[in-house]
Amino acid sequence: MKTTKLFCHLLAIVSIGLLSNCTTETESLDDPSLIEQQNTLKALTELSVSSVSANGDDGNVPANTLDGNLNTRWSSNGATGKYITYDLGSSKKISSVKLAWYKGNQRKAFFKIRVGNSTSSLSTVVDKKSSGSSGSTTQLETYNFSEVSARYVRISCFGNSSNSWNSLTETEIYGNTDGGNPPPPPSGNTPYDLLGLQNWKLNGLSGSPSNNDYVDAIPNLSNYTNNNWFFVENNWAIFQVWAGSDTSSGSGNPRMELRELTANGNNNIFWDGTTSKEHRMKWKVRVDRLPSSGKVCFGQIHDKTDFFDDVVRVQCQGSANQTSGSVKLRINGYVTEELEGGGKTVGNFNLGEELYFELTYKNSIVKLYELNSSGNRVNTIFTSQSAPAKQNYFKAGNYLQSMKGKSYKSSDYGRVAINKLEVFH
């Protein structure tokens, strides 16, 4: 992985390239209907795909279109009757699909986008059988249409302008979500308001930095703010925790950390990481200060059992009480410490630098992605070996590492900031 700092210098150039390919229709954007569609797309959410299948391939399998990698693809030969189908798991409101084509800058792909609640009854919402894709880019191209409720999205393919092959590298499906974890509002007076914490609980502390008690679930979280531990500052939710703070019976390390709940917030959630359903957490995070150990965890997948425990910890490592400069981005937990013999450094970033990550679990494989400012995957930072944990949940916040037995000092604390937090199942 290149350092995040270097990536940020390149991001503006990359973003310009991506944005230039967002509109693929040949009509002018002066058309009011197209302007309205583009503005609507900004408010849409990328929908999770439960499974993907196709009626043929040449060894380049359908799952390659969901791996966030433009260098892999699904391919199938035939100018008629070849298709790839995405199952959203349940009916969702859909109004946009993004597609990227293999050799899309050399030839046009001919296709239709068809949707419905049964694969035996699909309706065409985008017809490019004759006009085809742009033929000018290998990046994702956006196809908007009137909102429709559907469970299945099928790309029916009719070859390309050079031959009869159909080769799709990536697919993203967008719409409005009902239920689950909605996109957080842009600002708020409490962390709950800012981040939209309807389906989270806070494992935190009560009292003062020098004299406190661990609390498994902060009561009245929707109104809770505390100038020591958990508060909003410049549209960021701040998580601070000191050395020597009380903690849970299962850990010697203090924390101020969110734990995922069911969508309605009423119960603990446990989901299976071994199936083809992708479980995702996307979060914008900033690490501002390290404690005396120089280690802070700011994102996790945790399992209910002691065997896996913390399946993965996304954390950083630097110097004691460091407040600026470069630190190591580390992957710890079962996927490295047990499967690879120790924690793994996967990059570097600067304290105080805004980061945007996505942590996923699917088919027993954990992945960490780096996202651009639009929330799209641009770099696969880490891919695990097989880790078949079946009772999982996400965590995010400030979890000090290697701090067991340390006493309180006013200058010995960690600080993490988050201003966006979303989960998708």
From TrEMBL:
Keyword Signal: yes
GO biological process, one term: carbohydrate metabolic process
Record-linked PROSITE patterns: FA58C_3
GO molecular function, one term: hydrolase activity, hydrolyzing O-glycosyl compounds
Domain F5/8 type C: 22-176
Signal peptide annotation: 1-20
UniProt name for this protein: F5/8 type C domain-containing protein
